[in-house]
Structures are given as structure tokens and as C-alpha cells.
Amino acid sequence: MTRLWAISFVTVVALGSCRDATAPVPAALDHRWALVSISNQPLPARPPGLTYTVLADTLRFGVTSSRWKPSPLALATRRVRDVSGTERVEEWWLTYDSAEPLASPFSIRLLCADGDLAACIDGSGQATVEATGLTLRFNSPAFGVLKYARVP
Known about the structure:
- The chain is mostly beta strands.
- The protein is about 10% helix and about 45% strand.
- It contains one helix and ten strands; from the N terminus they run αββββββββββ.
- The protein has one helix at about 1-15, and strands spanning about 20, 30-40, 40, 50-65, 75-80, 85-95, 105-110, 125-130, 135-140, 145-150.
- An eight-stranded antiparallel beta barrel has the order 2-4-5-6-7-8-9-10.
- A hairpin with a 2-residue loop joins strand 8 and strand 9.
- The longest helix is centred in the first third of the chain and has 13 residues, at about 1-15.
- It is globular.
- The relative contact order is 0.22.
């Protein structure tokens, strides 16, 4: 489990300079989203499997990157605190099904630092947009169930 999160940390740290302009995004996702809970634990949260506490996370759909080839892309910017008390910002890059109109649930996948090879980790899952917000459910239980609320 620790190795999985170490891989995730490498993924997000290595991608710090990959942000580019914003791309078109389906209307249902045309918002910024703020993480409110991980596996029903409100933030700040340190659920099983994490080696740090998640303080905040903002997700944006329709971003582009000079580093990542899959399209479309979403970017989660996560502020965390490790066991020593040091805070840092991580970036998690995801690709998702962009069918129009956007069906819910739709497929979503976390991208890996190794060039997005399938051998990295199973970062695939489903996303559901509802009146109450956005929920990400990954196939790997290590990521937990992420619940987001729209940011006005």
C-alpha cells in the first residue's frame, strides 16, 4: 500500500510544470470542484492507505498539458501534510470519457508518472455527477471514494 502512494506522489510531483490552457469541457463538468470527503471522512482526512493527511483538493476538468497525450484531461491540485508536519501541493492528472451529452456515471482514469503505462497502477474508475456533487470511485480501494462539491 505504501508503494502505491509513493508512486502517486512521484506522479504528482513530477507533473508540477505541465499546466497549459484550458480546453472545452462538457457543461455538467464546467465547474471547479472542491473535495469534501474521502471514503466518507470529511477533510482534513487521513484514511487507511494514505501516508499523509489531505487538507484540500480542487479538481478542474478540460485542462490541457504539454506532458500528457490522453484527452480530455482533468487536474486535481491537492494540499497535504505529511507525518513530519510538512505541507506540500500535489497534482493528480486524470483522463475521462468526454461523450456528449455526458452520461453519468462515466469512466475516469488516474494517469501515472511512468508515461501512463498500464503496468503502473490501476487508477481506473467511475465518476458520477449528481445534484449533490461529483463522486469518484476508483477500482483500487487504496484511493478511496472521493466526493466533491461544486465551487461557485
